[in-house]
Amino acid sequence: MTSVPLQQVGPSDQEVVSSRSPLGLMLFYGTFGILGFGPLAFGAVEAWSLFVLQAGTALLFAVWAIQQVRAGELQVSRNPLFPPMLAFAGIVAVQLACGLSAYRYATYSQALRYITYGALCFLVAQSLRRTWQVRALVYGFSIYGAALAVFAVLQSMAGNGLIYWLRTPRLGGWIFGPYVNHNHYAGLMEMLLPVPLIFSLTSQARGARKVWALTAAAVMAGSIFLSGSRGGMVAFSVQITLLLLLMVRRSGVSATAKGMGVFIILLLGVVLGLGSGELLQRMRSVAPEAHAELAGGTRMQINRDAWAMFVRKPALGWGLGAFPEVYPQIRTFPTNFYINQAHNDYLQLMVETGIPGLLIMGWFVLTLYRYALKKAGNWPYETGGAVALAALLGCTGILVHSLVDFNLQIPANAALFYVLGTIAVLRQPFGQSRARRSEL
After folding, report:
1. 5 cis-preceded (ω within 30 degrees of 0)
2. Banded pLDDT at 351 (limits 50, 70, 90)
3. Rounded to an integer, what distance in angstroms lies between the CA atom of residue 268 and that of residue 220?
4. For residue 117, what are the contacts with CB-CB under 8 A and spacing of at least 6?
5. What is the pTM of this model?
6. Which comes out higher in pLDDT, residue 18 or 30?
7. What 3-state DSSP class applies to 292?
8. Which residue from 42, 200, 394, 414 lies 20 to 30 Å from 407 (Cα-Cα)?
């Protein structure tokens, strides 16, 4: 915590008051309200929804500035992920300033998106300081994710091929929930489901709260399988494997092991109860002609072309956001699809920002795991550890899924990913000051 003219360690009395003030409440609920809006607006991929995301974030930043002015001092909470974020911004600034982008307008537009993501991360780092806020997020993310999963499954089972039964996708796709692409819906659930799951396995979850948390997690996880996203299924499996490894490393995990057993049973009940035959049919019908998706072989060709693009400009890349404009000139195969993403977020990052972008990505990921795993050491009993582990598992899902898809090119999913990363490494000692240790 840095304060001008004063410097403090941990939340001060003034911060406790400000978190409950009208501006503090507006900042906290507004920030996470913006994150919740994105997925409902088709992932914030359309111009109007992206504008709402960016304008809303700008207004919230203004609220934070007003809060600082009224407090009479500047209080800024630092975060270990801010340095790699700023370094990435430096690369993009060089591309724009030196005219290195193959399409300047695309780089500028994409840079505005990343500024929005960074601003949201900054606002979360400044506003998420108290244990009551963590408790609100647990309930909010759990209810939001479970409700969205129920809606997605119902729309899939009784749908008419339209989003919300009303909206026709402009370019077709495999609709699931509010997303045109079922893989991006799965990416959203990968990030949300660890919140109720981890809460249900902690010592703070008992009785009815444990039951609803396990049920919410099982519904969200089940919807990933019912969506038919193979990348989502693999990512979820990696998340659960990581969680089991962390459980095995601890002594006295009988309570959490029982909770995991109940979760698996509920998950099987959701999937089988809603129709294992439908799930098998989805798995067999992933052919591109059935759902307007690219086949696996085509994706591999795109990846080979993307690698060739990277090799041609490895120093600083073709420019952030320039992949859709440059790729048609490089493509080595005929297709009727409009290919605007690389279907591999890592390759696309390399193409657009070169070796420096790859190194900064590695810096970001290593910092994330280093700090989050350190905090998560006693997660069943400490609020801060549980928060870090839930956020880290959510980030892990997207990092795995990004090997075969482009979730981080979807504004709603990208914003949530970066915010979860920020939360995972927060330095605030949740639950250690004026908070009941018996609650999350």
Report:
1. yes
2. very high
3. 12
4. 414, 415, 418, 419
5. 0.90
6. 30
7. coil
8. 200
